[in-house]
Please model this.
Amino acid sequence: MISSLNARAALVSLLIFGSFLLAWHIGVQGGKGSVAQMDPEYARLMGVAATQGKSAMPGPLEVGAQIWEHLKSPFYDRGPNDKGLGIQLAYSLGRVLLGYLLAVMVALPVGFLIGMSPLMSRALDPFIQVMKPISPLAWMPLALYTIKDSATSSIFVIFICSIWPMLTNTAFGVAHVRKEWLNVARTLEVNALRTAWRVILPAAAPTIVTGMRISIGIAWLVIVAAEMLVGGTGIGYFVWNEWNNLSISNIITAILVIGLVGMLLDHMLGFATKLVTYQE
Amino acid sequence: MSMFRNPFDSGLRLRGGCSCGAHASQEAHARAMKADAVEAGETGEEARYERVVQSAIMRAMFPADAQRRAFLSAVGWSTAAAAISSVLPIGAATEAFAQTGPIEKKALKVGFIPITCATPIIMADPMGFYKKHGLDVEVVKTAGWAVIRDKTLNKEYDAAHMLAPMPLAITMGIGSTPTPYAMGAIENVNGQAITLAMKHKDKRDPKSWKGFKFAVPFDFSMHNYLLRYYLAENGIDPDKDVQIRAVPPAEMVANMRADNIDAFLAPDPFNQRAVYDGVGFIHMLSKELWDGHPCCAFAASREFIASAPNTYAALMRAIIDAAAYAAKPDNRKEIAAAIAPANYLNQPQIVLEQVLTGVYADGLGQVKKDANRIQFDPFPWESFAVWILTQMKRWGQIKGDVDYAGIAKQVYLATDAARLMKEAGLTPPAATSKSFSVMGKVFDPAKPEAYIDSFAIKRS
Model:
């Protein structure tokens, strides 16, 4: 029954996808044939959107061809402003991982501190509440001004945006470890550090990893925005550069790639969550 | 290209006169433009540097045109050249300018915004002008003016493509921390346009534009000042009757297609791109407002120039070479092909060709021809800076007393000619100003305050 449910779900997915492609294909078939009224010299200077009334939106076939082009040579390098999709992704992933790891290194200890100390929890709460909802783009000018380096600024922005879910989740997980377990540790006279390491960490791990999973999603969201703003390299820059050229098919390609990579990152942490989950 | 012409020609006026201010009449201007373009391509670069230095000296010695012409016609240009050489070592000054000293820093990063104004900066890379002068320059595409400003202030870029008003604004600390900046060269003159969305094709009279949403590339841009000027001359208050937004050039066409803006005064290729995609039409070229107006600049911090003078000189030589090459109409198609790839402008080649050759579709079914749609003339006239400052004050970007001439001199007079003359023991020109007219109204750089007061619509 389960397998047949899976098969049926896959079938429905395919049907939805197929009808979406078909609707898309039909949707972009614009009116054609106004070229006759145009002076040929004038028409030569104009794009197909103006001469043939072709929709600026590419059809699924064009996008498919574009994706194939990128897949054929993902690592070409034609100068500082034109690199293959693979290289751009590598730049973005590098920045995301660096900013994210920094955030992990700060968020876990501070989250432990907040979770274990009601005083610190209350003292730091207003800061966290104010800082949490700030958009990455709002940080960027400040970061550029103070850090004075655009690459470090993007990493900082990822750091500052991805830290909060981990911090709050860690604090929550640590604060809600079952009292009985802590009491057992206390009766056995386990010291504080050992309690944190052997009792609290495993107990809070599922919550912490869930926070990390939310954070990696945010980090991946942020990098596109940050790179669009700063430019240079990365998948966000690629989107911006193609926007510059009004090349919708390249932008759709980039959107698909961003989605796929985001999904992979999420699945990796989803797998980690399974590893640390325990049955009470 | 007055900079590349023989300054000892008595028929030539170094200031005042035609649209660009360098010629006796409009016809002479047209003739000279043609001759220059050929000459700039043909004569060797030694000769070109000599002309640059000679021009600067002649301007310094004879601030009044009539006087200089009288002198030249009395003695003839070769005698004049010899006479002046005996007093001032033009040879030495030229040598200092053309000399390739040890370059302090070979690998440089130069930021640019992907627009045709940046043509000399960009083309110098694929066409080998930087390499020729011993530099290894990486030209880096940048997303917007605010970012290019911040990255230059951060020293990530050694020099950058900026809008002509930006080095002034940065030096004065408007919109950033005050940092002394210098503008070595204007990149282009003209080359902008007002583009209206297709739905406004019957609203050609600017008086009917109340309630429009306009886009300009940046607050501190010639585009902003020219658009405001044009609107105000037509009785529309740019702050009250319409909305003017700063939108990065690359995003303008997309915004116009989405109906977010009604019109923009923007750099090319985006005017032509809007036409190419059937989104808008070209209402007028910016040269119809002010023929020969500056637009973009090649700027670097004073600190960079002081710490690496030979590198800066080599950079300037590459830019002057590139500008001279770009000035020749025959080269324009080749340049369009060189800067079209994704590494540079990332635009269809036919769009760039229309911008650079001046044979273009206007979006309303006409093919228009204007060889001066964009021109490349690197000389940074101080009076350009003074005009920009008057507009900054007019629209309330700067308040209080402004030392027009002082700031103009500090930022725009840092030309190679002046600096290298100083090194050769000469006194740099006291003034490198010329008057010009904007929409038929003459601007006298000596009376900036009176000029501001003469406008009916202003914020100060």
User: Anything to note?
Assistant: The longest helix of chain A spans residues 192-230. Residues 2-57 of chain A form one domain. Chain A touches chain B through 35 residues (CB under 8 Å). Chain A has a mean pLDDT of 85.
